[in-house]
Amino acid sequence: MLFLVTFAGHDQVRCETVAQTVHAILATPDGEADYARTKLALDKLIDPATDTEATLHDIDRMVADIRLMVPPNAPDIEKLREVRRYIYVSGPWNGNHPYSYDLGDPYGHVIRAKLLAHYMATHRGNCVSMPTLFLILADRVGLHVTLSVAPNHEFLKYTDTATGQTYNIEATSLGYPEPDEWYRSRAPMSDKAVANGVYLKTLNRRETIAVMAEVVLEDEMRHKRYSEAIEIADALLEVYPSQALFLIYKGGAFEGLIRERFQRKYPNGDVPAALLPTLVSLRKKADAAFNRAEALGLRTADGKVGAAKVASGRNSQGL
Fold it and tell me: Fewer Cβ atoms within 10 A, N terminus or C terminus of the chain?
């Protein structure tokens, strides 16, 4: 499939596959990486009907409104408050329809609900779409914000340029700050995973974009496009090598290939001798991905890990 995309300040880029498009997006230099265009380019891989230019026009209008709300020479913390007010407080700026958590699909099981245009149209989002819009608006008014992750969750890290201090911003809870301990109490995670940067890390711009791209990896797995998913996982790991969830997807994709190429064709285990080296190689690659994730401190109980492992065909006793 040929994709024609525009992102991150570049003109149209022709890519033959989803994986090649993700590679091209991740290769964008930090100084040219625009969060809004990047997110929409990724979303278009999932929903080709995404109207990039119309959505960008709406974002430009939103940013202009926020700038009018910010007093002249306001410090960053005041800009942050106005971004929060624009999104979560009812007023003419949001058509008296503030953005809120979608309690009907809080974890974004409907993948379309993770797309930016859907959130902007419905004003109801989840822990993927909500921090992404906050990130885009805050970045465009000059704030230093990135994404970060906890098990089965995304949130924001805001660094105040006046003090140098970094705060967590919880986009699903009216954009208010929450300490690391709050995330650890709600979604237990190992000290090892935190120390290795799997969770709660203040990401750089390219790592933030890699987290944005996870939804594309998820979509490829849902459609059982396992070879493509492996390529995407490798591209994301080049940028964010300590994100163990990408390794879980990668291991699951190798398991998917094993199911398709061997378990379904040879349910009795009578795999032809000529194909055994391929089977052994796929199994080793799956094990290597799962073992590396475990070495980084990821645990079976951590959010999406259990679901991804079950989807991969693994039993519930370990990675």
Answer: N
